[in-house]
């Protein structure tokens, strides 16, 4: 209670100081805001004065254009200037409401402007009704110009006044800001100092309370644990073997003891055989001064129970032996659970064996079905090639032999049939290649990526030359464990895509390099070689980065970028069969970077 009273004073002082700081800061900030608003108003007036002159010039420009040309379209600036001027005057009157001198000057400018506008309107009317010579006389009279000069003079005076006002407002804002910062800083420092003092007092009080509560809790916990706090049977014996304390669990577990155990020995409570064993264990414990752990089995009215017992020497604060403490836990349920677990493990092992055999049979059937499906696909694709070649050949023959008979529509139809047959044959060829990746046995051996790249570029040499594509290789490329033909196919497809998928009118710029990378798994870090092929093409949206490696997935129509949709799927399957993987990094309209990983090989080994 006294500590609470001592804390009330600094706590109340902190609150009062905080409220005062907030009030002073609020007043300082309010003054700062007021000064800022006045400064902004002065700036706004200066801007509106410039707008006033600007719209006046705009109106005069339109009038002169119309007087010279007689074209109505030149009056648009004049009309817009006339429409804007009342709005500007209204905003200026609102901004100068507290300045009578400026309002008087503004009234003078308004009068001059009305006269000037009347002259401009008169010249426009004369030009429209009497023609250019009469209107020119009005313009050459310089009446409107003299009025405009007077307006500029009055505006200049008003601007000078506003600039002086703005300069004063700026100084006032600076002083207000300094006062606000000082008030906030001083109040903040006071609050921080009081809060630190309050924190130190509260912390000291809290620490003292924690230690006191801990000591009380430990004493209470010790008492509860010794008496009734544990489900295990706990007891204390003196050096002569007499029970000095037992908990309720001890009494419950050993209900066959008919008398109160306090003051009794094991020989008075239990059978002689058991009592002798316990007495011998206690003597050994006191002689060796070490804890003893054992398992005991007892049969009583409640049946057979298993106990795990821990017996330890009990010493006073001077280290003298004053007795024995024992803890006995009933592990009957645990023993039964262990037996049940052993039985279940045996049953589980038997079921796992059965399921393993079943899965092996299912996998064998699935593999057989997949083999049959791939063989069927290969056969169908192979048998379709001959009819397609016939369609293509006959369509070309009809065009050549009956050129004079067919009209342009018939020729177009036959050309479409021929092109469709060619695309179908290319698709079948890609399907056969894709199928062969699964059926063909790939010989894995050391492969130099530079050799594979050379073969791929030789195949694509006409295409590279025709498209004016540039190819830069960061030599030397690494050696990998792979299949040479598969590597050539991978590079050929990647280079073909890089050449094909570029914006219209652009030429492909391709970069090829390789790097060594480490991948960690359960067996440790493994080295691999990542081959990169970068282009400056049209790129790929993020949502399609994984989809493009699926068979027949195309992001563009045949008219834009022809193809079969098998190339990247073949790369993915080949990489996986070689023990690697593939992927792509891309930004739409900025190009793509495809990569393929292979197992590393040391060519010098």
What does this structure look like?
- With 605 residues, the chain is α+β, with helices and mostly antiparallel strands.
- A hairpin with a 5-residue loop joins β1 and β2.
- It has 4 domains: 2-198, Four Helix Bundle (Hemerythrin (Met), subunit A) (Up-down Bundle), CATH 1.20.120; 233-330, PAS domain (Beta-Lactamase, 2-Layer Sandwich), CATH 3.30.450.20; 334-439, Orthogonal Bundle (Helix Hairpins); 441-599, Heat Shock Protein 90 (2-Layer Sandwich), CATH 3.30.565.
- It has helices at residues 2-69, 76-95, 100-129, 132-140, 143-227, 248-253, 266-269, 272-288, 332-401, 408-439, 449-459, 461-467, 484-500, 567-577; strands at 233-237, 243-246, 292-300, 303-315, 321-330, 445-448, 470-473, 479-482, 509-521, 524-534, 581-587, 591-599.
- The chain starts with a helix and ends in a 6-residue tail after the last strand.
- α3 packs antiparallel against α4 (132-140).
- A 5-stranded antiparallel beta sheet has the order 2-1-5-4-3. A 5-stranded mixed beta sheet has the order 7-9-10-12-11. It has a two-stranded antiparallel ribbon with strand order 6-8.
- The protein contains 14 helices and 12 strands.
């Amino acid at each position: 209670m006294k500590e609470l009273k001592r804390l009330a004073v600094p706590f109340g002082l902190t609150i009062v100081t905080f409220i005062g700081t907030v009030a002073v800061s609020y007043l300082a900030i309010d003054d700062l805001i007021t000064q800022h608003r006045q400064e902004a108003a002065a700036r706004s007036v200066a801007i509106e004065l410039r707008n006033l002159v600007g719209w006046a010039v705009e109106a005069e420009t339109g009038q002169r254009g119309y007087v010279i040309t007689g074209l109505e379209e030149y009056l648009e600036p004049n009309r817009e200037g006339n429409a804007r001027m009342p709005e500007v005057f209204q905003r200026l009157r609102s901004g100068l409401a507290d300045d009578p001198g400026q309002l008087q000057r503004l009234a003078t400018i308004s009068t001059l402007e009305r006269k000037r506008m009347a002259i401009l309107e008169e010249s426009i009317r004369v030009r429209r009704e009497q023609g250019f010579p009469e209107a020119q006389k009005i313009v050459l009279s310089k009446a409107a110009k003299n009025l405009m000069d007077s307006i500029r003079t009055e505006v200049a005076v008003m601007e000078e006044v506003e600039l002086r006002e703005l300069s004063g407002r700026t100084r006032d804002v600076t002083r207000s800001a300094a006062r606000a910062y000082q008030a906030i800083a001083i109040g903040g420092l006071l609050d921080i100092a009081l809060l630190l003092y309050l924190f130190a007092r509260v912390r000291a009080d809290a620490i003292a309370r924690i230690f006191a509560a801990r000591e009380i809790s430990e004493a209470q916990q010790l008492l509860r644990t010794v008496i009734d706090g544990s489900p295990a049977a706990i007891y204390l014996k003196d050096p002569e073997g007499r029970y000095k304390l037992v908990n309720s669990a001890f009494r419950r577990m050993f209900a066959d003891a008919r008398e109160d155990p306090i003051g009794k020995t094991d020989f008075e409570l239990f059978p002689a055989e058991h009592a002798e064993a316990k007495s011998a264990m206690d003597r050994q414990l006191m002689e060796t001064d070490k804890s003893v752990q054992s398992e005991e089995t007892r049969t009583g009215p409640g049946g057979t129970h298993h106990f795990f017992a821990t017996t330890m020497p009990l010493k006073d604060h001077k280290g003298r032996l004053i007795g024995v403490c024992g803890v006995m836990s009933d592990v009957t349920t645990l023993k039964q659970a262990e037996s049940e677990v052993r039985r279940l493990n045996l049953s589980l092992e038997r079921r796992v064996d059965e399921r393993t055999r079943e899965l092996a049979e299912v996998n064998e059937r699935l593999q057989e079905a997949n083999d049959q499906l791939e063989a069927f696909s290969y056969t169908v694709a192979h048998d379709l090639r001959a009819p397609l070649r016939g369609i293509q050949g006959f369509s070309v023959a009809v065009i050549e032999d009956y050129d004079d008979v067919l009209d342009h529509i018939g020729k177009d139809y036959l050309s479409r049939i021929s092109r469709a047959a060619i695309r179908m044959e290319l698709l079948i060829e890609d399907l056969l290649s894709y199928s062969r990746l699964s059926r063909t046995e790939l010989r894995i051996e050391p492969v130099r990526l530079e050799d594979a790249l050379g073969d791929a570029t030789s195949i694509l040499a006409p295409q590279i030359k025709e498209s004016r594509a540039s190819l830069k290789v960061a030599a030397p490329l690494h050696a990998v464990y792979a299949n040479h033909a598969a590597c050539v196919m991978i590079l050929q497809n990647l280079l073909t895509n890089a050449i094909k998928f570029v914006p219209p009118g652009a030429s492909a710029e391709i970069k090829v390099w390789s790097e060594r990378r480490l991948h960690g798994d359960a067996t440790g870090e493994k080295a691999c070689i990542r081959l990169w092929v970068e282009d400056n093409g049209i790129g790929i949206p993020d949502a399609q980065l994984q989809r493009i490696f699926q068979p027949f997935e195309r992001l563009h129509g045949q008219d834009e970028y022809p193809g079969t949709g098998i190339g990247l799927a073949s790369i993915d399957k080949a990489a996986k069969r070689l023990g690697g993987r593939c992927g792509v990094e891309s930004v739409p309209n900025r190009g793509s970077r495809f990569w393929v990983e292979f197992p590393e090989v040391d060519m010098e080994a």
